[in-house]
Structure formats: structure tokens, C-alpha cells
Amino acid sequence: MGEKIYIKVYELLSSGQKLVLAKTIRRSGSTPRDVGSMCIITQDGKLIGTVGGGALEYRVQKRAVALLKQEKSFIYQFHLTNEDLAGAGMICGGDVDLYLEPLFPENAGMVSLFETIKQQIADNRPGILVTRIENGIHAMDTGARVFIKEGGKTFGTIPGLNPKEINLDKNIPYDLINLDDKGMDLFVEKIALDPRIFLFGAGHVSLFVARLAKTVGFSITLIDDRPEFANKKRFPEADKILITDFKQAFEQLEISQNSYILIITRGHLHDKTVLQHALGTNASYIGMIGSTKKRNTIYKALMDEGFSKDDLEKVYSPIGVDINAETPEEIAVSIVGELIKKRAPEKKTKNLIL
């Protein structure tokens, strides 16, 4: 959840700046942001990111400035009052715990670990970050966190912890773990793969899908066989544009479990071609535009070619959430809404008595 924040952490540390990383580790009731939300407070008090705004964030900033002088971590527990919640536009109370870590560039091992995380993010490879949660950990402590790469290679140490004991459910982005036998509390979080959209078709609907999807954090690869439609002038939001026949496209793409395939081409035959290849990938989402009648026609043709009903049940079609959308702009809203819903992880974290 904090990929961009972690990149910024490394950039600040490598430039010689001290900072405090504030992270939401537990919540109950109504709170401004979910577990895993983060912000950085720099040594001059500047705030980067957010843990909820309002009075909560103001207090975090004030406390962080003091912690830079004390050089020790702190578990900040809040009970949000009616006044706090009114400022955040809420009507129900809640509790939230934040973990504030002073991070100093002089701690070379810790800086190296964040450099590893930054590179992992740049390479679009997953990993798991484990942070020891405890009051009073010194900024120069070398045993406060471990990063576990895909494949099990570890960076950093937490005394008494065997990284193989960490098992984070693939469906959740974080967990708060209490290891009673070790007297240790840990916050475990995924460094997730970048969610990537493979947008097949460069028509009017795709124009608005690209704009909205980029705004909410997806990277976009646009695929079409018409350079007059698929170009950077029409699609400035696209991270990559591939001009190719739809039949050859998949040979040039890296489809991962965090890929979202959107089939919005200009005709039934192209839709069928793309869907046929998409079903052979491990993409987490495959959506195809069109009416129920069109969908059924394509499904029947694919089943005649050997695809099963189970194969086709993976497909979201007609694509998008049902909001009675009619215009290209409205259809784009419905599609991106469905992508957001699909991307959103199962929310889970354990209560921790601190």
C-alpha cells in the first residue's frame, strides 16, 4: 500500500535527511484512513502522504518533530473525539494506533534495506516487509525490520525471528502479529506488484477509461492495430503503446497475477481473439465490453473450440458495475469502478493490546 512512500523514504535518507515514518497499524470504528496508510514527516516538519488529515495528522506531525530529537520509536494511540471526527467529516467514533519510526541516514543497514525495497518496486516484483512494533526502538537500531524477497531471500534482521515463520495470506495486504512465545509484535505488509491494465482497443470508451484509471493508480498498456488511434497524443496517460495485430499481441506482453485485461475493441471478432488469448493467462481480471447477447455469441464460439464454462466464468462481461451507464464517459466510470473493487484487498488486521 505504501510503495510510493517507501521510494520517497529512500530518496530522503540517501540525500542525508532524517525523517519519521508514521504508519497506521490498528483501527476500530470510524477512522479517516485504513490500516497501512502512511506518511513521512521530514526534519523540517514537512508532511508527505497522509494518515487521515485533520487533528490526527496535526498531532502526528507535532509528535514526530519531538521524536527526531528523542531518536526513539513511539506507538501513538488515539481515541477520535466528536470534534476530531467532525473535522474529518465522520459521525461515528473510533480508535486508531499509529507507529512512528525515526529513520536516520547514519543507519547504513536500514538505508540499504530501503534501497532494496525501492529496487524491488522499480522491478515490479513482490516482497514482504516485517517491522518490529515497540516503544523506544532507537533510530540506529539494526534489528528493527526484515524485508523478504520473492523466493525467500532476506535483508535486515529482527533478533529472535525466523523469517520462515512469517506467512501472510495472499488475499490481504497486511497483518498485525503477536508472537507470544517471543514477546514480540510485528507489522507484516506486502510490497505489491504494480496494478497494470492491458487495454485492448483505442476507441472512445478507452480514452476515458485510460484517464480515470491512471488517476486512481493503474499503469496502462494500450494495444491496437491502428496507429492513427493508438498514439501518445490521444492517450497521454498510457505508459506503453503497442501497435500490433491482436493475434500477436500476447507474445509481446508480460501478463502477471496483478494484470487487468480490458477488452474494448471495435468488433466481435477482435473481442473473441483477445478473449481467447486472455483466458490462457493468469491475469486477476478479464473484462469484455458489450451486450449480454454479444457475450453469449462469443462464449458459444469459444466453447465450440474447447473452452469450458468454468473458463468463461472468470470473465467480467458485460464489463463494469451496473450504474445504467450510457455515454462513453459513464461507461468508463462503471469500468474503473469495477477495477477498483477488484483491486481492493480483503480488509483484515488483528487487534493488538499495546
List the helices and strands and how they pair.
Layout: H1 3-14, E1 19-29, E2 38-42, E3 47-49, H2 54-70, E4 74-80, H3 82-87, E5 94-103, H4 108-122, E6 127-132, E7 145-149, E8 154-157, E9 174-179, E10 184-191, E11 196-200, H5 204-215, E12 219-224, E13 240-243, H6 246-249, E14 259-263, H7 268-278, E15 285-288, H8 292-304, H9 309-312, E16 315-316, H10 328-343
Parallel strand pairs: 11-12, 11-14, 12-13, 14-15, 15-16
Antiparallel strand pairs: 1-2, 1-5, 2-3, 4-5, 6-7, 6-10, 7-8, 9-10
Helix pairs in contact: 1-4, 5-10, 7-8
Name the features.
354 residues; alpha/beta; Rossmann fold; 2 domains; six-stranded parallel sheet; five-stranded antiparallel sheet; 16 strands; 31% helix
How would you describe what is shown here?
The protein has 354 residues and is an alpha/beta fold. The chain folds into two domains: 3-191, no CATH class; 196-343, Rossmann fold (3-Layer(aba) Sandwich). Helix content is 31%, strand content 26%. The protein contains ten helices and 16 strands. The protein has helices at residues 3-14, 54-70, 82-87, 108-122, 204-215, 246-249, 268-278, 292-304, 309-312, 328-343, and strands at residues 19-29, 38-42, 47-49, 74-80, 94-103, 127-132, 145-149, 154-157, 174-179, 184-191, 196-200, 219-224, 240-243, 259-263, 285-288, 315-316. The strands form three sheets. The protein has a six-stranded parallel β-sheet with strand order 13-12-11-14-15-16, with helices on both faces. A five-stranded antiparallel β-sheet has the order 3-2-1-5-4. A five-stranded antiparallel β-sheet has the order 8-7-6-10-9, with helices on one face. A hairpin with a 4-residue loop joins β2 and β3 (47-49). α1 packs across α4 (108-122), α5 crosses α10 (328-343) and α7 crosses α8. The chain is elongated, with a radius of gyration of 23 Å.
